[in-house]
What does this fold into?
Amino acid sequence: MYYTIGEIAKKLNISPHTLRFYSKEGLLPFVERSKSGIRMFKDEDFEWLTLIECLKRTGMSIKDIKTYIDWTIEGDSTIEKRLDMFKKQKEAVENQIKQLQETLKLLEYKCWYYEEAKNAGTCNIHKKITPEDIPENIRTVKQNLKKVNSI
It folds into this structure.
């Protein structure tokens, strides 16, 4: 079965403009065209596009995604290069997750703090809060904030 650019865009929840951009950047060499030049997407193309979108979400550049696609087209001689690329990207995502977890902890602390301030009717509660008053799961956030402020 073939899909139009609009149908595949809707299926992927991206714009047709994005698909045209991918095509222009060489990310869609596998997509067939009709005699009149209209892109005709197949089910297998959906898998490729899903992978491209996934790699984009990880922060991989269009240039690197293009390199990956080129290596895939080259065949088995590039397996090690592709494996290395995915290992590096996996490490980058793990670092992003770690940073996001730290950010989430800070947000949890601030939510707790402002709930306490709301209940007390003032933001001056920070003068009275002891480390023991802070929930254990977010206590280190306050300690880290103090370290940053003392620099």
